[in-house]
Amino acid sequence: MNQKPIVFGALLAVVLLLVAAIWYLSSGGANDSAQPVALPDHKFENWDSPIEDPEGLSREAESMFDGVEVLSYEQLIIAARKGQVSLVSELWKLRRQCPDDMDRYDCNIRIRQFIMDKFLPPGNEQLAELFTKYLKYEEEMSRFEMPKDLTLKQQYELIRDKRRDFFGPEDAQLVFGFEEAKAGFTAQLKSFQESTAGMSGDARIAAYEEMRKKAYGDYYETVVAREPKFSKYETELQLRETDLTGLDPAKRGAKVTEMREKYFGKEGAARMAKVDAEIAERETKLTAYKDAEAELLKNNAELSGDALDGKLMELRIKHFGKEEAEAYARRENYEKAMKELRESRNK
């Protein structure tokens, strides 16, 4: 049993999260475009100044964001505190409703008007204030230069500190808490794997859930509710590594089937077993073919070109059947062409 996926998959996730956050500092926010977006400095300080025609702006905002579902302010804040809603993602849903040729300043004004119209007081004012903080945070981060001598972990910690400078502890937690909890949990996985390596499966699973509860806090229930069944299955399979390693193949197979039935039902477990059998059959065929290919090449060193290709195709058809043999040949030709291309570029 290989336990690397749960560690390295999660570590990759946190590295990507850190890189994304660091990219954010230099790109000016969560824009979907690959190019940094210049913020309208000359307009920014006045974006929330009194509107000359608030009724007209309200009509325009209502039309622009027509069909956007809106929770009450209380529901939105509760959902954000549980990690069920990302306020940053919700903002960018609204931003994507703005026309492509509308500048950021005009889009933000209409979003603010939409907030003021759709939420009841005092929630609308509180949400508009949070929006203002976020805009100022975007503005500052677009100009901020990350020190080059920091590790990824140190860079992310600096980001966390700056968020609290702009938002204060409570609002920073509201806006970024779930993201930061995920990063914190993932950072703990490697040491967890090492410290629990000798535990029984049951003890290790209990320790894993306890670690998740502490790392996620108020977000734990959301994490568990959203976790895909296959992820739960893979995690349990890896956490029970010590139990499964000492079993003979038949007992091990029975335990794995039991876990599969737990998450996917009998039909799902049967489908997975069928896939396992198909993979094993393909591997057996491939091993047998590779041995036969090596023998053919050894005994027919004089063959080359079309004569050699013909012999190899006959051998593939014998081991795989005509259709799969032709697919195998196409894959080999593609891989050979790509290898030659890489070698030519490296010269």
Please, could you describe this protein's structure?
The protein is mainly α. It is 77% helix and 0% strand. The protein is built from 15 helices and no strands. The N terminus is likely disordered.
E-strand count = 0
Structural class: mainly alpha
Give the number of helices.
15
Spatial separation of the terminal alpha carbons:
41 Å
Mean pLDDT: 86
Strand content: under 5%
Radius of gyration: 28 Å
User: How would you characterize the largest beta sheet?
Assistant: none
Helical content stands at: over 70%
Order of helices and strands: HHHHHHHHHHHHHHH
Unreliable spans are 1-20, 22-44
* Oligomer classification: single chain
Shape: extended
Strand and helix map with partners:
Elements: H1 4-27, H2 41-44, H3 54-64, H4 73-81, H5 87-95, H6 104-118, H7 123-143, H8 152-195, H9 201-216, H10 220-226, H11 229-239, H12 241-245, H13 249-299, H14 305-320, H15 322-346
Helix pairs in contact: 1-7, 1-8, 3-6, 6-7, 7-8, 8-9, 11-13, 13-14, 14-15
Keywords:
disordered N terminus, 347 residues, 15 helices, mainly alpha, 77% helix
How would you concisely characterize the structure shown here?
By secondary structure, the chain is an all-alpha fold. The chain contains 15 helices and no strands.
